[in-house]
Amino acid sequence: KPQCRKCAKALQELENIDDEADQLGIGFVKIHDEALAEEYNLGGLPALVYYRHQTPIIYEGELQREEDVLEWLVQNKSTGDEDDVIEDVTPKTLATLITNIDNLVVLFYDHGNDDSMTVLEELEQIDDDCDKHGIQFVKIDDAKTAEEFGIDTIPAIVYFEKQIPNIYDGDLMDEEQILQWLISQLEHDEIEDVTDEMLDKMVKEGRVLAVLFYDNNDEKSERVLEELENIDDECDQLGVTFVKIDNPEEALEYGITKVPKLIYFEKGIPTIYEGNLEDEEKLLKWLEEQINSDQIEDVTDEMLDLIIEKMPHVAVLFYDKDQKKSQKILAELENIDDECDANDIAFVKIDDDTEAKEWGIDDIPAMVLFERGIPHVYDGDLMKEDELLGWLVHQKRYSEIPEVTDEMKDKLVENTEHLAIIFYDKDDKQDIRILNELENIDDELEKEGIVIVRIDNAAEAREYGLDHLPSLIYYENKIPALYEGDLMNEDEVLEWLILQKKTATIEEVTDEILTNLINDHEYVVCFFTGACEPGEKCDRTLIALETIDDELDETGIIFVTTEDTAVAKKYNIKIYPQLVFFRNRDPLIFTGDLEDEDEVLAWITDEETLEIPGRIEEVNAKMLDKILAENEHVVVFFCKSIKSKVHIFLSLNVNSLNTLLDDEGDKKSLKILNELENIDDECEEKSIDFIKTSDDDIEKEYDLPGLPALAFYRHKFRTIYHGDLMKEEEILEWVIELYESTADVIESVDRKTLQVLINDVEHLAVFFYDDKCDSCSSILEELENIDDDTDKHGIQFVKSNDVKLAHEIGIFAFPALVYYETGVPIMYDGNLKNENRVLQWLINQKNDECFYVGLGHDGRAAKREYKPFQCCPTKLEKSTKVPKLTAQRIGFSDNDDDHVKKRASSNFKFNSAETKTSTPHHTTTKKPSVHKPNTSKHRKPVVNIDSDEDDDDDKDNDDDDDKSDEDDDDDVPLIKVSYAKHKVPVKKASKQEDFKSNIKTKPSQPAAAAPAITAKKLHIKEKKDEKFNIKSGTFDFSKYIVW
C-alpha cells in the first residue's frame, strides 16, 4: 500500500528475483488495492500471493529475504507442474475461494491419517476431469475449519456452488462415482442440503437466505420440496440463497415443532413464512416483498433470543406500537437502518412488555445493543438518530465494560459459562477509578472467553452479602466465587480470573451466596474456616482439599468455602475449621480427619452419606448418571423444577400448596411426590434406590414422553410407568413386580440408555426395528430365542424402535442388527430370520482373532505405500479354491533369511479406519449427523468372508427356519468388517509363534455412538500389479510361507 515503508523495503528486495521468476515462467506483478486485498482475506500488507492454476497460495515467510521467497516459488512451481496434484490451501485461502469461485470442491483431510491419504490418491485421478468441467478442486488439512462446516468425520468432500456447501455422502474410494456426482451438481439445479453449522455460518455472515426445514421421511416435505425446486432459479435471480435442512434440533431452536416450514433470513434476522408452501408462486411473491421492504424488522421474543445468541451485534428497540412516542422514534430510527446494515449491526424492534421487563427495561421505548449476547443500554436521546448511530458504531469498535440491570445480570448468570460481575457505585469517585483500571483487562478477558459486566445496584449487592463496594464476583456455570484481593491491581485481578477459569478451585462465598446455593442445589459441601490467615492450619487444609474438587465436580457436588459465620451459627457450628455436607438442604457434619483429603472424598461420595433416611433424594443429572451406572435397581421420578420449594413444602399440608405455588406443573409434581414418599421405605427394604430429579432439559436428555414421569431401571434398562402417578399402592406393586421378574426378553432401550451402553458395554448387539414394519415382530420373536445365549457369551442384546436415532447412525431399512465392540459398529448383512446364524455371527465377532501380512512386490520387501492385509481365521465349510502363496508373493524372496528382522523393521503400517456412514440410496446431500468414534484414529476396515453354511432346521432351500424359499442367501456370503488397532510387533521365542504377535487388539477407549458400517457398501479397490486381494476366503498363511 502507498506510504508504507515495510512495503517499499520488501518490494526493493523482491526486484532482485524478478529475472529468476521470468526464467521459471512465473509472471511477477504488484498491485496497491487495499479493498481487493481485504476481499481476498490477505490480512496485513504487504502480502505475496502465488496463483497456481487459479488457486491463491499466500507466502507466510519474511518478504525481505528474497532468497527464501525464490526458493518458495521454485518449490510451488515444481509441484504445480504436476497437473494431477490437488492444491493444498489455508483456511484464509479457502474462504477467498469460496467467495470468488462458483464451483469449488474441497477435500477435508488429515495428512497423518492413512484413510485420508488413500482417498487423496484416488481423487488425484479426477482432478483433471474436474478442471475440464470448470470445477476447481482443492484440499485442506485443518480440523477447526472442518468443524466450522459441521464435518465430524475426516476425510470428507464438500462441493460449494456459489458459496452454498453440499456434503458428499457416498463412497470416497470410488472416484468415478464422485465425478459423476459433481457433474450432476452442475447439470441439475436443486435446493442444497446444509448442516446446522453451515446454516449458522451463513446466518452470521448476514446472507439473504430462504431456509426450508423439512423431514426427509415425511411425504408432505417431499411434496413441498418438489414444488419449491421450481423457483430455485428465480430465487437466485433475486439474490436469495435457497437451502434446506433436515435437523429437528435446529428447527426447535427457531420454535419450529412441525415441518415443513420456511424461514427467510436477511442480515441474520429471521422471518417465518406463514403461507401455503405448496403454492410456490405466492412464496416467491412474498420473498420479493421481504427483499424490497426497507423497515426495521419486528420479531417475537423467541426470535429475539435466537438472534442475540447467533448474531455478534444486535440493536433492539423495545417499543409499544400503540404509543405515540414509540411511533415517532421509530420513524426517526428507520433512517439509520441501512447504516446499521453497512456496519454489520442487525437492527430489530419488539413490541413485548414482558420481554422488556425480563431485561429490566421499565421505560419504553428503549434501545439496547447486544454485543455477543452482552447487553449495552443506551441512555441518550432516541430522537437524535445520528447520535444513536454514532453510539452503536462506537460500542461495536471499542471494547468497554457494559452496564447491566439486575434482570440482565440474572440472564447472564443463567446463560454465560464464565462471567465476572463488578458491583460498584457510579457516584463514588474511587469506584470509577477502579472501573477505569479494570477497563484495561477487558480485551484480555474477551480472549480468554470471560465476559465482564458492571452493575450499579446497592440493593442487589446486599443480596450477595457485599457490604463494601466495589466488589467482584466470578461465576462459572452459575457457581459464584468472591474476589478477596485488591481491585486497583488489574493484573492481579486478571490473573485470578484466568486461574478460576483454568483450574479447579474451591470457591470463596459469603453467607448470602451460600444460603442461595444450599436452596438451589441438591449437594453442597462447605468448608467453614472462620477467621483464617494465609499459612495457618485452616489455610493449609483448604489447599489440600483443593485436590478433590475435580472429583466432586464430576459427580455434581458443589464445593465452597467461607470465612463468614452466620450460616455456621445457624447450624450450631462453634469450632473451626469444619466441613459440612448439605444434602437437599439437610446438613451432615464430617467427623473424620480433615487433613486426609482421601478420607474426606470417600465420606462425601459414600452412598450412606448421600442418602437421607425416610426421604426421596433430589439428585442432579450428573449424580443420576452415576447412580444408574452403579446400582442394579433404581426408581426415578422425573419432574419440573421444584427443588427450591421442597423444604417449604415439607412443613406444609397439601391444602397450603395453592398459596405457595402458581404453576400447575409444580402443584402436580409436589402432590405426586407427597404420595411417593409413602412407598420409599418399602423400596429401600428391597434395596431399590428411589430418587427424583428436576434438572433443566431433563425431559429432552432422557427422551421422556412428558413431565412428570416415573421410570424403573434395571441394569440401566428403563421401563416407564403409564398408570396413575397419584396411586402409590399400584406404583409399589408395579415396582415390586418388575424387581422380582426375570428379564428373559430383549430389553427395549431409549436414546439416552443406548448411548450409555455403547460407551460402557464392550460387546453390544442392537436390533433396530420400526413399529410400522410387518416382518419386524416375527423376526424379533425368533431373536428372543437367542437372548440367553448371547448373555452366556458376554454379549448384551437390546432393541430400539427409535427410527430417528437409526437414521442418524445411517440405518434406513428395517429391521437391522448392529454389533458394537467397544463402541465400534459392525452391521449384520445376513438373514435375520435365522436366529442360529445370527448367534454364530455375533459369537464370531466377539471371538475374532486376526493377524497382518505385509504385501510386497516383485519379491522385494514390503513397501510403505502398500497396505497390510488382515487375515482372520475362518473355518471353510464349503470347498473353496485357495490360491497358493509363496514367500515372494507376500514380500520375501526364497533366500531371504532375515525375514524376522524385516517384519520388525516397521516396513508395514498397522492401520485402522474411522467409521463412516454409507447411507443406502443417498449419495448426495445428507448431513452426517452423529459424531464418529475416535477410539483409533487411523483404522481401516478390512473385509473377510464368513461361512455361509446352512444351519437352519427346516428342509427348504433357504437358510432360515421357515418353510419358504424366500430370502435364500446361500449365494450371498456373509461379510464381516473387522477393525484392528496398531500393535508393535514383539519378538517371540520361536519362529512358529512369530505370526501370533500381530493378533488383533480391541480399541481400549469407549467411543460415542457412530454410524453403522454396512459391509455391502464397502468397496475394496484393486490396482493391477500393486495390491493382492483374496476374494475366495481366508486361510492359514503359515501353510504357504516358505521360510
UniProtKB/TrEMBL annotation:
It comes from the Eukaryota. Residues 946-972 have a biased composition (Acidic residues). InterPro entries: Thioredoxin-like_sf (IPR036249). SUPFAM superfamilies: Thioredoxin-like. Coiled coil: none annotated. Residues 923-941, 979-989 have a biased composition (Basic residues). Gene3D superfamilies: 3.40.50.11390, Glutaredoxin. Residues 905-914 have a biased composition (Polar residues). This is Thioredoxin domain-containing protein. It comes from Glossina brevipalpis.
